Amino acid sequence: MLKGISPLLSPDLLAILCRMGHGDEIVLADAHFPGESSNPRIIRADGLRIPDLLDALLPLFALDDYVKDPLIMMAPEPRDTIDPAVEKAYRAAVDRHAPQTAPIARIGRQDFYERARKAFAVVMTGETAKYANIILKKGVTI
């Protein structure tokens, strides 16, 4: 156990965050996401909700402020709807730790899957909300 680091961050997740470089991306995936088939580097965070994980992770993780969209979520398919409370909860966590961060962008499902394939890692959470996946682009820590 380490002082000042949330117990929600496992040793494996802390190691991944430490190994990431500027511009690398990490996916915080909901429980529905096909993580195992989309990226070989999977971290399990079963039972954790993404807003809680964001609150634990963001004090240690600089978001990239050199890009237009350091936060990206999946856009819904035309016949689906999203729960605006999901993005609102994510934004609240971001605003507590990095309030200057640009708004959360949305990209199509297939584009999101492609980004996930290229991401540094995918964190599989216990989040059950639909369209709750989010990509974080790492910035420079100063």
Chart the SSEs and their pairings.
Blueprint: H1 11-19, E1 25-29, H2 35-38, E2 42-45, H3 50-57, E3 71-74, H4 84-97, E4 105-107, H5 109-118, E5 121-125, E6 134-137
Parallel strand pairs: 1-5, 2-5, 3-4
Antiparallel strand pairs: 1-6, 3-6
Helix pairs in contact: 3-4
Number of domains: 1
CATH level-3 fold name: RbsD-like fold
β-strand number: 6
User: Radius of gyration from the CA trace?
Assistant: 14 Å
> Globular, elongated, flat, extended or rod-shaped: what is the shape?
globular
| The first-level CATH class name | Alpha Beta
Distance from N terminus to C terminus (CA atoms, Å) equals 25 Å
Beta percentage is 15-25%
Helix share bin = 25-40%
Order of helices and strands: HEHEHEHEHEE
Largest sheet: 6 strands, mixed
Question: What is the CATH architecture annotation?
Answer: 3-Layer(aba) Sandwich
Question: Strand order within the widest sheet?
Answer: 2-5-1-6-3-4
Count of discrete alpha- or pi-helical segments spanning 4 or more residues: 5
Which stretches of 5+ consecutive residues score pLDDT under 50? none
Q: What would CATH call the homologous superfamily? A: RbsD-like domain
